[in-house]
Structure prediction request, 60 residues.
Amino acid sequence: MRGGFVPGLSDLDNPAQIVAWAITFGAAPQLFTGLVDRQAQNVLDDVGGKAGSTASTAAP
Prediction:
């Protein structure tokens, strides 16, 4: 944290700042992976729906 890679992290003066950064670093990955998972599920649903409808239409 004292390496200066992220501005503001070297100046953690009070517990409120530490908690705010902890919440930010904890929530950001969760939100990002949630969005990616939903998008992946949408893609899988679209692909599965097209394959299922093609297979059922091709069968006599």
Summary: The chain has a mean pLDDT of 77. The radius of gyration is 22 Å. The CA atoms of residues 42 and 48 lie 10 Å apart.
